[in-house]
User: Fold this.
Amino acid sequence: MDISDQDFETAQQRGAARKASFPAAVSVRFDRRTSRLVVALASGLQLSFLPGDVEGLAQAQPADLTEAEISPSGLGIHFPKLDADIYLPALLEGFLGSRQWMAAQNGRKGGQVSSDAKASAARQNGKLGGRPRKMAGAETA
Assistant:
């Protein structure tokens, strides 16, 4: 597939605009004391987060995280031992994962929350006989 000069120039402009709108990573390290990844940005901001909160790093061991590489653009981090990558702008947009993954995480947390309204609804449902029992051999749709 050939890329025209116009396509190349357009891609260069998009890349430059993205790089200008987001500070590049200048260093990344795994802090064993706190079990957190620490990313220093060119703006002086440091991001610190638990690997388990990041899509693709949830099952990582500390030894897997000690060797991280910053991409030439400074917008990505690669973990060679895991063959996993983090794109920093997307990480912050979805807050440590894709929108779909974060929605699943938030739904899981929301289902675990106990509130007065939830407890009241459960009591009312209990007065009505509660959740219907499953019929043996019945198929669910």
